[in-house]
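call fold(seq) -> tokens
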Amino acid sequence: MTSENFLDLPPLLGARGTVTLPGSKSISNRILLLSALAQGATEIRDVLLSDDTGRMLDGLRTLGVGVEQLDAHVFRVQGCGGNFSIKKAELFLGNAGTAFRPLTAALALSGGHYRLSGVARMHDRPIGDLVDALRALGANIDYLGNEGFPPLEIFPATLSDAARVSVRGDVSSQFLTALLMALPLLDRDVTVEVTGELISKPYIEITLAMMARFGVNVSRDGWRSFTVAAGSRYVSPGVTHVEGDASSASYFLAAGAIGGGPLRIDGVGSDSIQGDVRFADALGLMGARIEQGANWMEVRAPLDGRLKAIDLDCNHIPDAAMTLAVAALFADGTTTLRNIASWRVKETDRIAAMATELRKVGATVEEGADYIRITGVRSEERGASKNCVSDFASPHDPRSSILNPIEGIDTYDDHRMAMCFSLAAFGAEGMRINDPGCVAKTFPDYFARFREVVQAVPVIAIDGPSASGKGTVAQRVAAQLGYHFLDSGALYRLLGLVAVQRGIALDAEAQLANLAGQIDIRFEGTDIWLNGALVGDELRGESCAAAASRVAAFPKVRAALLAKQHAFRRAPGLVADGRDMGSVVFPDAVLKIFLTASAEARAERRYKQLKEKGIDANIAALLQDIRARDERDTQRSAAPLQQAPGASLLDTTDMGIEQAVAEVLARYQVKS
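ret:
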């Protein structure tokens, strides 16, 4: 799947800082429903605002529940004791399992006529075991599509006297959660027996803790059976709060472990009721250094800077285990994650999806019915730094300057796929995330928060008019810093050269754009390679420069070369010269320089340059050509010549090259 909707993350060098987590989705949706089922009004603070919680809020309002938003993350819910005032309604619940399954159980036992549906993927997620258990209690539920799957139609129940029902535990813990939350609507003792191994046990702990917060205590026999006593009724606690989302914490914990840290996460810690806080223990097994308090965690990379592979039963952290799968890219050895069969019935088949996307970034992956085994790129090929930042190719290897467009990571409309693979941007080429908006399901501003605590490979962008010396200055700055160098003007000169060689007209925009995507360009020091051949001085000729100016004016050509230019951004840094480097190509450049000089000074420099190469030149003709090109470049619609916002002016009319280089380095030192 390829999407035009994508987000490019630059290659990352490190991660440090502090992030405050949004509220937990699992807790938010449980508290919202329990507040509706309770007697009295409940004020809920720190509610997660996301697609999944939005589905629950919409559903409750559709059912006639009084829901008032008091502040950005504060809601007041007027409980109805499970007696919904709207007895006939249709609810669309998207792909929100934490809304669909519990609402199914509550509505099946509340006495009304309802239709529940969702997106196509929700209709692929099983619900038969929950429906069977509810039918045993007297619920009247029909399938509107495939047997065992949503959508559903619920009719008023004819309640039975059943005191015991059973539900499978090895498909989804949400089935047991839904039953337990709905049982206080019945006025009798009911025991739920779990058949098979109960997966995701920590999520049941959340359910039991939330029910107790609303006055209903469930007795249990280990993980085999759970009993809700007759007379149990939900009573509002008055004011309650939602703790930070532990599953979301996993992405930042892993970022700190891969990117060095220290990175602190506020909102969850040792006092959390969420099982996914144990992700920190798993990361510790990989060598990460973890500290935590009651409501915070802090992570650093291993002392030797390298994560270690693990073999782990992940039944207790099924969602957070996805983050371990991507962290395995940066670990020495082969990581095996076991007991994750539930991945296959989540928002997508996560085992298959994870295997497919990990292979895109070079991992060797083996998948089974309930496990995944991942071997990242070998450490000697990664060139891992002291901060455990894997490059997937040594930043000092000339091969890292070969321009290969980034292949996007497909996310399958699964929020966790998108958030997990943001961590792969610690590789050499950064990462393209297709359909990044899917994170709205649980963490709408995830990528903005992620950017706040990660440090991208730095870029110095140098622009300016033709013959201003920007290429020479940029190249020498790159050499002094040990950074990679991108001469974007050379890209357009090469394109013009190849177009002329192949007989492609310089105004044939579509053909030129297609050609731009095909050519293979590499810079090695002062040498430029085109399709494996060293390019000579013909690239510096005036005819080639004129051709470059013409082809660079086409938007489709510039778009076609964008990914190639992005690929030059490798650790430890990049100096890029050329038009729109600091505005379009690298808008987050640490330093942006607009380097200029008078037309007369530029003509004289070009004249000396050509004469040194033994190329005949006329200074008057050069001056005329430079002025004409300035006029043309200033007026063109695509990437016109202008000082970009945030760029500092550097006039080198009276400067030598070394003076200009020293000035750029001084300004960079101030910025960095």
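Residues 619-635 form the longest helix (17 residues).
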